[in-house]
Amino acid sequence: MRHDPGAAPARVMTKVVSATPVTMGAENNEEFAMTDKPSAPSLGLLLGESRAMLAYGRYLLRGLGHRQLPAGRGQPVLVLPGFGASDVSTRPLRRSLTRLGYSVYGWAQGTNLGMNSKRKAMLVSQLQAINTRHGQPVALIGWSLGGVFARELARAYPERVSQVFTLGSPINGDPEANNVTSLFNLFNPKRPPPDREAFEARIPAPPVPCTAIFTKQDGIVSWQCSQEEDGPLTDNVEVQGTHVGLPWNPQVLAAIAERLARCPETGNE
Q1: Where are the domains of the chain?
Q2: Angle between helices 87-99 and 250-262 (to 10 degrees)
Q3: Taking 60 as the threshold, does the pLDDT of residue 220 lie above it?
Q4: pTM score, whole prediction
């Protein structure tokens, strides 16, 4: 890959679309300005992440409500987990998208402990293989750090990617406005200090449609840092719920399914 998947953010002005309901009407848009220096979510928000387990229980009982959503036509989708997570964590979302008719893949690299050269090569090979197998670009969905990886894959290989969805990913504002930096550094001891210049260079969205899904109840990543800058190919969607619970959030599935259904199928050139 030609760009290292770093994480997130500088000052932005953007439009936010609420996912309750998920619509594109102007009446649901609101303008806001990001503060100069976003901070990590408060202790109260961090403790509130425990609600994700209640949401998971609701998922086990009711599913994610996929029957009311538009169906897919076998389009390929690759889902990347967040830091400290594996394909197990994204299974609810992947299963629901599969039931909708998409060809869904997990990243199959175990626990996500950050990027390295081996993982990067495997991710690029996987994208190329899925793209070749289906003969059309692949939709990328990345939860948290996985969303950072997804954006950089799309930036390096836009011809192989149909669109990108980030779920609570640190893609804007401040790379340290989160509650996992210390843990990330523990597993990546040789990682140099954040390169602000490189980070800011990664803020602009890759040249494919990009939807940033965020929640203001996020206790892990500052919600201001989880949004795309306003542009012709970007969209920001607010949902209710926790950061940890994004992969089993019905509003997240609805936002993704509606946008996947809008994307035309295009074969490889």
Answers
A1: 13-19+38-261
A2: 50
A3: yes
A4: 0.83
